[in-house]
Amino acid sequence: MTYNPFFDTFFSSFWYTLGLMALLAVTGFIFRGPLFVNRKYKGWLGAFYFALTMLLLFLPLFINPNAWGFGPAIDIENIKADDRSAAVFDYILEAGGEGDDPTPMYRVHMIDLKTGEKKFRKLLGPSFELVALTKDAVVAERGNMELVFIDRNDGHELARMNRETLPGLYTELAPGIDQVNIDRYDMTMHVSVITGKHFTISMNDRSISPMTENARSIKDTAGPNLKAEDGSIRERKKYGEPVLLKLEGQSWNDKVKKLKSPDDSIINMQLEFLDGKFAGVNEKLQVAFILHYETTKNLHFLLSAVSLDGKKVLWQIKQKDLTVEEREIPALVCTAMAESLDGLLLSANGTVMLIDAATGKVSWVNSL
Question: For the chain, which terminal residue's Cβ has fewer other Cβ atoms within 10 angstroms, N or C?
C-alpha cells in the first residue's frame, strides 16, 4: 500500500495522538467563546469539535493501525539494495490476546536509492524474512515453507508459493507436493512431487526446471572455502574469491578486534575496534566499513571506513552524529552496499540512511 500522510502521522506516537486531541478540544473551547463566534453558531461548532475529538479518540478501534501496516518501526531487520532501489524490512507489534505477547508483523518498504523517497510499504504478516531483491520483485520467506514475491514497482503480490499453491502455478507440480525446501544460497526453492520427481524454482525469474545431480555442487564445494572471520565482509560476494581483510581479537581478549592480513599478521597495532565486525566493502574505492562500539555495553555504535590495505582509518562517524533514536538497549544495525552510488545503507532503531562511502557524509535519511 502507499503511504498515507494523515494516518502515518496520527499513529506515529501515542503522545502525538493525545496531543492532537487535546489541541482540538482547546480549539473548540476557544471558538465557542463570544469573541470568536456568533451565538447562533456556538452550539453547532462546539458539537462539531466534540464529535471530531471523539472520532479521533475511537479511530484506532475502527481502523486497526497494525492490520493496515501503520505505525513506526520497532526495528529494521534487513536491507537489500541494487542500482535502483532499497528494500527495507522492518516490523511493528500486533497486540496479543489476554496473556499473550505481542506478535511481530513484518513489512517491506521500497525506497528510491538516489533520493530516499519512500515508494510503497507492504504488510506481509508474522514470521517473514527478507530474502532477495530481484529484477522485478522483492522476495520474502516464511518459515522455510513459503515464498512471497512482491512487485517492486507498486507493491502488489506477484506470486505466493507454498504446498497449497504450487500445483496450480506449475503443471509439473500438478500431481501434488511431497516436500518443499528453500535454499537462500543458490536462490531456489526445491520441490519434491509425490511421483518422486524433484524440481527447482528460481527466485530470480520464477522459472522451474528438473533438479539435476549437480544442482547444489557450487554451494557444497565452495561453502568450506568461506572463512568465518571473513564472512560479514564477504556475504554479498561470490564464494571462492580471496580473503581481503580479517578482523579478529586475541586469544586473551576477543572483544577488541584488530585488522589482519590474509596470513594472520596484524597490520596496524594502533587500530582497535571494540566488538567490531565488517559492515561492507567497496573495492572500487578500496574501502572497508567496520561497525564497532564505544563501550562494552554496545549502546553507542561507530562506523569506521578503513583503507582496504588495513593501514589507516579514512573517516569515522558516531551514532550521536546521526539521526538515530537513543534507546536503552543496543541498536540492531543493518547495512547493505549501494554500489551504483558508492554508498553504504545503514539502518538502526527505525531509521535508514545512505552514507557516502568516500566521505562519510549522509546523503539522505528516512524514518519508517
Answer: N
305, 308, 312, 315: CA torsion to nearest 10: -20
For the chain, the structural domain boundaries read 5-67, 226-367
CA-to-CA dists, residue 33 to 20, 22, 37, 40, 49, angstroms: 20, 17, 7, 12, 13
* Integer CA distances (angstroms), 278 to 29, 153, 298, 356, 359, in order: 58, 31, 16, 17, 18
Q: From CA 220, how far away is CA 257, in angstroms rounded? A: 30
Range 104-114 average pLDDT: 92
pLDDT greater than 90 at residue 316? yes
What phi, psi does 36 have (nearest 5°)? -110, -35
DSSP 276-325: -EEEEEETTTTEEEEEEESSTT--SEEEEEEETTSS-EEEEEEGGGTT--
| Rounded-to-10 torsion of CA 15, 19, 25, 29 | 150
Q: Residue 226 in contact with residue 243, Cβ under 8 Å? A: no
H or E segment and range at residue 150: strand 146-151
* Amino acid 8: pLDDT: 61
What is d(CA 78, CA 71) in angstroms, rounded to the nearest whole number?
Answer: 18
Three-class secondary structure of residue 60 per DSSP = helix
- Say whether pLDDT at 244 is over 90: no
* pTM for the predicted model, two decimal places: 0.74
Region for residue 196 given its phi and psi (left: phi exceeds 0; alpha: psi -120 to 50; beta: otherwise): left
Q: Which fold has domain 226-367?
A: Thrombin, subunit H (2.40.10)
61-95 residues labelled b (16+ CB within 10 A) or e (exposed): eeeebbeebbbebbbbbbbbbbeebbbbbbbbebe
Question: Hey, what's the cell of 132?
Answer: 532477495
CA distance 81 to 346: 11
pLDDT tens figures, 330-339 = 778 888 888 8
